[in-house]
TrEMBL record:
Annotated source species: Hufsiella ginkgonis
Membrane-spanning ranges: 25-46, 58-76, 96-125, 137-154, 174-193, 225-245, 257-278, 298-316, 336-365, 377-400, 420-437
InterPro entries on file: Glcn_transporter
Protein name (database record): Gluconate transporter
Topology within the bilayer: Multi-pass membrane protein
Principal localisation: membrane
MF (Gene Ontology): gluconate transmembrane transporter activity
Gene Ontology cellular component list: plasma membrane
Family membership: Belongs to the GntP permease family.
Top-level taxon in the UniProt lineage: Bacteria
Length: 438
């Protein structure tokens, strides 16, 4: 019965948004309240679950998305995105622009949390689209596939990091195996698959488009790359210092504070305010006006993400994730496939890769100990499962849809299928690695 309620909720959500033309945030709240009642949450607690889901989801990412949107708008308005696009295109040429985007996403995705990387790369994607008249999805999806793979497979991202710790895996080996898997998976789900998506009509948000700026008024290449990618540089530096100076009193607390994505984004924004804003001839008032403009297009995105968090919280509070995991635990399949399957189904039902990974860890820990399965590969198998078929209950789905301004149908066809290919390719690679290593 639980599975039927989940399926009905998801179908109702899709129907309200696509056929009913109801605002996605309103649709999420309606479906969340209905699902909570059907799943047996006490009447007096349903609204609390919805409010908690909205608050926790938005609260965890609002600073990242807002600061990222501000930085992205300034990068676009100052001409830094145009300069970066020009440099990349000069290096790779129009013919290999997808490769350039994939490599950029790969490098960015290693240290940077997915939401930060997403909002940071959007202006770069749209700048290339505007300058060279290339279909947005054809350019953007390969880069975002890199970010997604890094988020699901590799430490220091939340779920893989916790899995490594809980399974007593080797961080270095897990990272190495993850890189080996990531390359072919990204190529298949990114550049190869997007060849089938050139006909998707996408008119991205105008907030990230600017008219071409004359060459002499563009910021320098170093300033453009440095200011745009400063969040990556800062996070890499902090991560390295945490590794080199573990447990040093005072310094450890400072590094933990500085490693918070919201703090990283704020520091990067403050630096860019001067390197791209004030030094480019803008007054502080003009820079702040740019930041104010950047917020107009992301308000609805934040609301939709909050709505998806409400539905997720209702599912969590009703015990759906534990019920799914328990139902699958006794299946007679290879432990690696079992870990992937449990994570995949929780991901499809709840929409959160992190929750899917962490929930599966608790279920698979005794299985791992009894079976003697390689813990490093189990981390990757669960990570791959946690990326399976992102759809309407996943904030990432709505971020992609709203930023690229495409239909739900085309988002399913592009974003959801890309994530599915990443997941299937990931578990296939894990099983091949298992055969080679053992």
């Amino acid at each position: 019965m639980t599975f039927l309620i989940i399926l009905f909720s998801i179908l109702m959500l899709v129907g309200l948004v696509t056929w009913g033309k109801i605002n996605a945030f309103i649709a999420f709240i309606i479906v969340s309240l209905m699902a909570g009642l059907l799943l047996g949450i006490p009447l007096e607690s349903v609204a609390k679950s919805v409010s908690k889901g909205v608050g926790d989801t938005i609260g965890g990412i609002i600073c990242i998305i807002v600061f990222g949107a501000m930085l992205g708008k300034l990068v676009a308005e100052s001409g830094a995105a145009q300069r970066i696009a020009t440099v990349i295109m000069d290096l790779f040429g129009r013919k290999y622009v997808q490769a350039a985007m994939v490599i950029t996403g790969f490098v960015i995705g290693i240290p940077l949390f997915y939401n930060v990387g997403f909002v940071l790369m959007i202006p770069l994607i749209f700048s290339v689209v505007s300058k060279y008249k290339i279909p947005p999805v054809y350019i953007g999806l390969p880069m975002l596939s890199s970010l997604s793979v890094m988020h699901g497979f590799l430490p220091p991202h939340p779920s893989p990091t916790v899995l490594v710790t809980q399974f007593h895996a080797n961080m270095g080996l897990t990272f190495l195996y993850g890189i080996i898997l990531a390359v072919p998976v990204i190529i298949i789900a990114g550049p190869l698959y997007t060849r089938t998506l050139k006909n998707i009509v996408s008119v991205p948000l105008k907030s990230f488009y600017t008219d071409d700026i004359p060459e002499e008024r563009l910021p320098g290449a170093f300033n453009s790359f440095f200011s745009s990618l400063l969040p990556v540089v800062l996070l890499m530096a902090v991560t390295a210092l945490q590794f080199l100076l573990p447990g040093v009193k005072g310094i450890s607390s400072l590094l933990t504070f500085l490693s918070e994505p919201s703090v990283i984004m704020l520091l990067a924004l403050l630096v860019a305010t001067f390197t791209l804003g004030v030094s480019g001839g803008r007054s502080m008032k003009e820079v702040m006006a740019v930041y104010g403009e950047s917020l107009k297009d992301i308000i609805i995105i934040l609301l939709i993400i909050g709505g998806s968090g409400a539905l997720k919280q209702v599912f969590v509070d009703s015990g759906v994730n534990a019920e799914i995991a328990t139902a699958l635990r006794d299946l007679h399949v290879h432990p690696l496939i079992l870990g992937w399957l449990i994570a995949a189904l929780i991901r499809v039902c709840l929409g959160s890769a992190t929750i899917a990974g962490l929930t599966t860890a608790g279920i698979m820990l005794p299985v791992l100990a009894a079976s003697g399965t390689d813990p490093n590969l189990m981390v990757l198998a669960i990570g791959a499962g946690s990326l399976m078929f992102s759809h309407v209950n996943d904030p990432g789905f709505w971020m992609f849809k709203e930023y690229f301004n495409i239909s739900v149908k085309d988002t399913l066809r592009s974003w959801s299928m890309m994530e599915t290919l990443v997941s299937l390719g990931g578990i296939a690679g894990v099983m091949l690695l298992n055969m080679v290593i053992h």
